[in-house]
Amino acid sequence: MTRYIFITGGVVSSLGKGIAAASLASLFKLRGFKVSLQKLDPYINLDPGTMSPIQHGEVFVTDDGAETDLDLGHYERFVGIRMTQDSNVTAGRVYSNVINKERKGEYLGSTVQVIPHITDEIKKLIIKGSKKSDIAFVEIGGTVGDIESLPFLESIRQFSLELGKSRAMFVHLTLLPYIEVTNEIKTKPTQHSVKELRSIGIQPDVLLCRGKNPINQNLKKKLALFTNVPETAVFSAVDAESIYDIPILFRDQKIDEFMLKQFKLKSKRLNLSPWNNYRLKARKCKKTVKIAMIGKYVDLADSYKSLNEALYHAGIINNRLVEITYLDSEQITKASVKKLKVMDGILVPGGFGNRGIEGKILAAQYARVNKIPYLGICLGMQISVIEFARNVLKLKNANSTEFNSKTKHPVVALVDEWKDNSGKKIISDKKNMGGTMRLGSQDCTLSKDSLAYKMYEKLAINERHRHRYEVNDSLLELFNDSQLKFSGRSKKGNLMEIVELKGHPWYLGCQFHPEFTSSPISGHPLFNGFIAASKKKRKL
After folding, report:
1. pLDDT digit string, tens, across residues 68-82
2. Most buried of 121, 396, 404, 496, CB within 10 angstroms?
3. Which of 278, 308, 323 is the last residue of a domain?
4. Which residues pair with 234 in a beta bridge?
5. Catalytic: 378?
C-alpha cells in the first residue's frame, strides 16, 4: 500500500524542492523502502523539450526517451533509480489527455471541467507514476499562489482526503529570509505561504525552512503558532556546502524518523555509509583542475546542470575540485582562443542551432593541436569531426547541414540527407528519418583497441541520446588512414557513436549524453577519464 509525500514550495521558486524530495527519498531507500519520485509541472508545454535552457535549465532525458525537467536528474543521482516518462507530468500533458478523451467521447457528452475531469486525470497520473512503490514522493513545481498550480494543488488535496492521513503527508518548503542589517530571520513569508495553502484546503504536516542558518526553538514555536504545524514538525533546510550534504543534514534532524512515525511504519536500520563516505572524499579534495566549458547557454549554469554534476562527481573520484570556466562560444575568435592555454581540459557540450558554432570549432582545434584533453558531447562530437575535416583533411567549408544546407562536404547531416562524395544521395536507414529526434537509451559497440574501451572496460554499452543529426556514414571513407578514429558504433553499425584522436593524450567525442547517468558515488567512465587526463596535464 503506497504512502504519498507531497512537496510544495512557497514564496519564491528555486528553493530546492527537487533536492529536498531526492534527499528524503534517498533516506527512505537506504532504510529498505521501495521509493518513487515524480515532478508535476504547471506549465502548458507538453514537455520542456522545446523550451530554452536559459529560461528553464537543461532538459533531462530518461532511458525511455522522455524529455523532462532537470529535477529528475537530481532524483536519479540521489536515489539511484531510473526515471521514466511517467515521472514528469506537465499541465500541457494533462490537458492534452483530457481533450483527447473528450474527442473520443469517453466523457459521454459531459461538460468537461477542471473539477472533476482535470483533477481526476492528474490523480490517475500520480498513481501511474508511483509504480506500486512503498513511498511515493511527488513534487509540485512552481510556488503556492501560482494560478497555473491550482489544479495540481486541488488534485493533491482531493487525493489526500481519499487516501486518509495514514497514507498522505504534505511537506512545505518555504523561505526564511535573513535580514543582515537587523540580524533577524523573518517568518512572515512562511506564514503567508502556509496561509495560502490552508486557504485552498491543504494543511502542511511538515515545514522545511530554507535559510542561511538553522532555526532555534523560539522560531519553531512562533512558526508552529502561526502555521498550525507542531513544533516537532518544523525543520531547518539550511544552505549547504554541497547539495550532497542535504541527506545527512536531514538525517541529523531525524526528519525521516518523524515521517515514519506519522505513517506508523517500521523500517530497517538506516545505513548512511554511502553518503558519509562520499562526504569524506569530497572534503579531502584540496587541489583543483580547470575545465573550460564552451557553450552558448553559459548565462545560466543550470543549462548544463547534469554536466556540472558529472564533472563534480569525476573530480571527487580523482581527488580534485573541478573549477569550471564557462565561455560563450560566440566570443571565441582566432585571437581569443589562446586564452584556453591555461585550461587543463576543454569540454564542448550539446546544443542546437548555428549560433557560436565557429567558436566551438576553434576550441576543438586548439585542444587537438595543443594536446589538451578534450571531451565533446553530442554537438561537441560533431564539432570535432567538422574541425578535423576542415583543418586536417583540407575539405574546405566542411560542415553540418544543420548549419549550412548547401555545404559541399556534409560530414554531419540528417540521416535522410546523407550523400556520398560524388553528391549522390544515400538513405542508409529508412526507419531513422531525420525529422525525428533520436531519444533515450541506445546500444553502442566499442572497438577493443580504443580509448573508449579503456574507459568503459567493456565492448557493449548503453547511453542516452538527444539529437537529430549524425556523422555522415557515406563520407566515412574520407577519414580512412587518418588520426581520427570512429571507435563506437550503433548496434547496426551505421551510426557513429564515439570518435577519438590517435596520438593525443585524451581526445574523445560521443554522440550520446553520458552526463545523464553519472552518479555521485561512482561518477561516469568518460568523465572520470577526462578529469584524470586533465589532472595529469596539470602536472606537466
Report:
1. 999 999 999 999 999
2. 496
3. 278
4. 207
5. yes
